[in-house]
Amino acid sequence: MAETQANDVLVSFRGVQKSYDGETLIVKDLNLDIRKGEFLTLLGPSGSGKTTSLMMLAGFETPTSGEIQLAGRSINNVPPHKRDIGMVFQNYALFPHMTVAENLAFPLSVRGMSKTDVAERVKRALSMVQLDAFGGRYPAQLSGGQQQRVALARALVFEPQLVLMDEPLGALDKQLREHMQMEIKHIHQRLGVTVVYVTHDQGEALTMSDRVAVFHQGEIQQIAPPHELYEHPRNSFVANFIGENNRIAGQLHSHDGERCVVTLARGEKVEALAVNVGQPGDAVSLSIRPERVRLNGHSESCVNRFSGRVAEFIYLGDHVRIRLEVCGRTDFFVKQPIAELDPALGVGDVVPLGWAVEHVRALDPLSAA
Ligand SMILES: Nc1ncnc2c1ncn2[C@@H]1O[C@H](COP(=O)(O)OP(=O)(O)O)[C@@H](O)[C@H]1O
Ligand SMILES: [Mg+2]
């Protein structure tokens, strides 16, 4: 990865660790540079340490060791309200006894801004989230989505250099969530503010982010732009957490530079990209995306060719997922756009299939966790 210019970095975690009980490290050794203006997402399963990391950045938790810098200056001893950071959480936490406009004015008044300036800023913030006519309402008079837009406006109204969002859309239904994802992304693009966003939803992370840091058990597994994360997962955890994935267990047979040969349980050989493998004889997990598997005649040009027995079709409107029995597995999935589906294909049929070497990755065997 290219060396990040020091003056492009807004936030820097340096060797940050966090333990709540003095024994277990919830955040193990966090080293992370967040660039000015970037939309960075912390993605990981529940309990992986995302919120803890965000809370340390916000100043509500103290690192057990290590340092956090904001704009080149250590903030370990700077209280939350002096960090110039806006925040949005899942439960909107608007003041219920204040109108929308009063909620938005609050962070400005506490900063000692004049009444005229406050009024002007509030007006602009309302317009930014398309709630111009709602200034006089109370939070209880708004829908969940509208309340979340107010929370967003309130986090941005004092024009902080950094905004933190922790699962801000978690309480919204799917359609509204997807709408708000785009809205937040567009606001980010317009304002150029730096955003650190937390979610356990990989689709949300891929849609919104410039870069995604994948968390697991208090450690970053990989940090990369969405496309790279999806196409070039560095280990089994990332490959399985992001997107769908066929996994086949095998043993490393030989390894030559970027490529390797893996032997499957019944002796079949697969030629794969050697991404995260040990020595010949070691266990490996092969990872193949369902959309990369080619069926019938399309498989003829593939280096890795097998056959599969069709077990089930699952229709999803625009595409179909076909479950097959392949190489001893009964849960091997192939994804096909409806337009490419062979209408003659039926359950029980045995079809040739295959995948290219560049679409199968040999990774560490996934632990049971
Ligand atoms: N205030 C706290 N005191 C003790 N343990 C905590 C506290 N906050 C979080 N934890 C623990 O730290 C781990 C990581 O939690 P958290 O950072 O909230 O993860 P995430 O946001 O990824 O779900 C969990 O096991 C959780 O129980
Ligand atoms: Mg959390």
Descriptive report:
There is one protein chain. With 369 residues, the protein is α+β, with helices and mostly antiparallel strands. It folds into two domains: 231 residues, P-loop containing nucleotide triphosphate hydrolases (Rossmann fold, 3-Layer(aba) Sandwich); 120 residues, OB fold (Dihydrolipoamide Acetyltransferase, E2P). It is built from eight helices and 20 strands. A six-stranded mixed sheet has the order 6-7-8-3-9-10, sandwiched between helices. Strands 11-12-13-20-14 form a five-stranded mixed β-barrel. Helix 2 packs across helix 3. The protein is globular and about 75 Å long. The protein starts with 8 loop residues before the first strand and ends in a 6-residue tail after the last strand. The site of adenosine-5'-diphosphate has 10 residues, from helix 1.
CATH homologous superfamily placement of the largest domain? P-loop containing nucleotide triphosphate hydrolases
What is the molecular shape? globular
Low-confidence stretches: none
The helix tally amounts to: 8
Structural class comes to: alpha+beta
Return the average pLDDT rounded to an integer.
93
Order of helices and strands: EEEHEEEHHHEHEHEEHHEEEEEEEEEE
Helix content: 10-25%
- Number of folding domains? 2
CATH C-level name of the largest domain: Alpha Beta
CATH architecture of the largest domain: 3-Layer(aba) Sandwich
Number of strand elements: 20
Q: Determine the CATH topology of the largest domain.
A: Rossmann fold
**Could you tell me which ligands this complex binds, including any ions or cofactors?**
adenosine-5'-diphosphate, magnesium ion
Fraction in beta strands: 35-45%
Keywords: ATP-binding, Cell membrane, Membrane, Nucleotide-binding, Translocase, Transport
Catalytic activity: ATP + H2O + polyamine-[polyamine-binding protein]Side 1 = ADP + phosphate + polyamineSide 2 + [polyamine-binding protein]Side 1
Family: Belongs to the ABC transporter superfamily. Spermidine/putrescine importer (TC 3.A.1.11.1) family.
Domain ABC transporter: 11-242
